[in-house]
Amino acid sequence: MTTPISTSTPLKSDVCIVGNGAIAKTAALGFAQAGHSVTLLVPPARQAQDPATSSAAQQPWDVRVYALNHTAHGLLASLKVWGALDLARVAAVDAMEIHGDGQQGGNLGFDAFGAHVGTLAWIVEDSNLNGALDAALKFSSVRTVSGCAVELACGEQGASVRLADGGRIDCELVIGADGRESWVRGQCDIGVDYRMYHQRAIVTNFSCEKPHHGVAYQWFTCADGIIALLPLPDKRVSLVWSAPETLADTLMDESLGELAIRLAEYAEPKLGVLKPLQPEEVKAVPLALVRPHSLVAPRVALVGDAAHAVHPLAGHGMNLGFGDILDLLEVVKEREERRGIADERVLARYARKRQEDVLLMQMATDGLERLFGANLEPLRVVRNFGLNLLDKLPSVKRRLMAHAIGRTSI
């Protein structure tokens, strides 16, 4: 339920969060449960789905899924959101197999046993995650406002978000959780480095003939992009195919049956015959690398895709966003008593705290996309050799796994 705003009297809160995705909702719950008054400003066109109508029997499988790591799991559990998920629709990732390109392609494997954890990650549908967050918001102190923001003003006395209908939200801190094309970031004149990958992520779901045993598969195919098949409950898998634009156009013009035939070369030895889930659905998402020049501005902090958009080959875009929320909550909680939640030094600590994690993920995903996107035989040999070598270096693999699953060490 949204809270109306009077055009004559501004709505006041400690924090105003702009956005309507899972990151915005999680940030709102996190700050509310930390004792701050929170206003969540969402676009008027998007209304929350009623969790009461989202039972497994009624809802088709969402083609948009996230591979949530232990950082995300811990945060959602602490906010009492994880237990509100429909866990029958959540799949554990117990192992991962990565395959290089060519007949002599390299291979790299990870598993939960080697990482000393019960599972590497969890595959969660976007609709399942947002349904649980919406349910939690209904029982929280968060005030949700539906409106179109037109101006952001920040000064020594606070921040103010003006809406198109004349309403206004006054606050101490504004959090931009409004996606890759962030309005908040633009209002702060924060520049970005932007690299289009000229790829689109083709996402859809299939049933598989053989059980997947909780294994996530990924193939670096060079000319055809990067193909990932992620485990869903029972004998189902979710496809994320980062395809070059020309190929993506072709894939979107084909039937899902034809797409399954294309995938047979990779999937059949592992998963058997793939069949489209009913009702059939497929989406294409343009891919880009977005690096804002700053994560903060006076009285403003950016989180999620507003703060960093990365290639989905590692499946960690959403996890970076949850890491943003955790670190922002931590620096606000640990600030000196004399400092407000939007104090310049507090926000600077947040930016520094996120710098290494975000930079490492940006470099890793962008570097791998460049490396495996180059169709040169010498590079093909080197990268396949590198995968095979890495697979034989347990200490290095443990460090990579620790970073991927959101642990400092394993």
Describe the 3D structure:
With 410 residues, the chain is α+β, with helices and mostly antiparallel strands. It has one domain: FAD/NAD(P)-binding domain (3-Layer(bba) Sandwich). Helices cover 35% and strands 29% of the residues. It has 11 helices and 19 strands. Strands 1, 2, 8, 9, 10, 11, 18 and 19 form an 8-stranded mixed beta sheet that branches. Helix 1 packs parallel to helix 8. The protein is globular and about 65 Å long. About 2% of the residues have low confidence.
Structural class from helices and strands? alpha+beta
Quaternary structure state of the chains depicted: single chain
Estimate nothing, just give the exact number of structural domains: 1
Task: Give the CATH H-level superfamily.
Answer: FAD/NAD(P)-binding domain
Proportion of beta-strand residues: 25-35%
CATH class: Alpha Beta
Largest sheet: 8 strands, mixed
